[in-house]
Amino acid sequence: QVQLVESGGGLVQAGGSLRLSCAASGRTFRSYIMGWFRQAPGKEREFVAAISSSGGSTYYADSVKGRFTISRDNAKNTVYLQMNSLKPADTAVYYCAGNRQVVAATPRAYDYWGQGTQVTVSS
């Protein structure tokens, strides 16, 4: 089992950058596929990015490709989401999630979730 805690959210102007972090407890973090999702008010939770357990493969939603970068440091039990060129449409609560089976863009595939961190992009 793993516990996840996100940090790094905040208020930023359009065009700015933020880096989100997700710290995981437990010794098995390196065996987990990790993902970032986001949920805006009144909308469903949507996939943002995912990374394989080794960090060798990454996947992105089309809406963030070229602007966001997911990475991980298994020695620090942490996964990151670097967000550049932020837009007001990126405003949402961002969640990190983990599972040990498959890289997936659907929230149902993930077993463990953090509490979320708010990102607000002003125009």
Structural features, described:
- This protein is mainly beta and 123 residues long.
- The protein contains no helices and eleven strands.
- The strands form two sheets. Strands 2, 4, 5, 6, 9, 10 and 11 form a seven-stranded mixed β-sheet that branches. Strands 1-3-8-7 form a four-stranded antiparallel β-sheet, with no helix packed on it.
- A hairpin with a 6-residue loop joins strand 4 and strand 5.
- It is globular, with a radius of gyration of 13 Å.
What would the keywords be for this entry?
globular, 11 strands, 123 residues, four-stranded antiparallel beta sheet, mainly beta
What are the low-pLDDT stretches, counting only 5+ consecutive residues below 50?
none
| Cα gyration radius (Å) | 13 Å
Kindly report the oligomeric state of this protein.
single chain
Largest beta-sheet characterization: 7 strands, mixed
Structural class: mainly beta
Specify the number of helices: 0
Query: What does the average pLDDT come to?
Result: 96
> Could you say which overall geometry the principal axes of the C-alpha atoms support?
globular
Order of helices and strands: EEEEEEEEEEE
Q: Give the percentage of residues in beta strands.
A: over 45%
Beta strands, count: 11
**First CA to last CA: what distance?**
40 Å
The proportion of residues forming helix, as a percent range, comes to: under 10%
Question: What is the element layout, followed by pairings?
Answer:
Layout lengths: L3 E4 L2 E4 L4 E7 L8 E7 L6 E6 L6 E3 L7 E6 L4 E6 L8 E8 L12 E2 L3 E6 L1
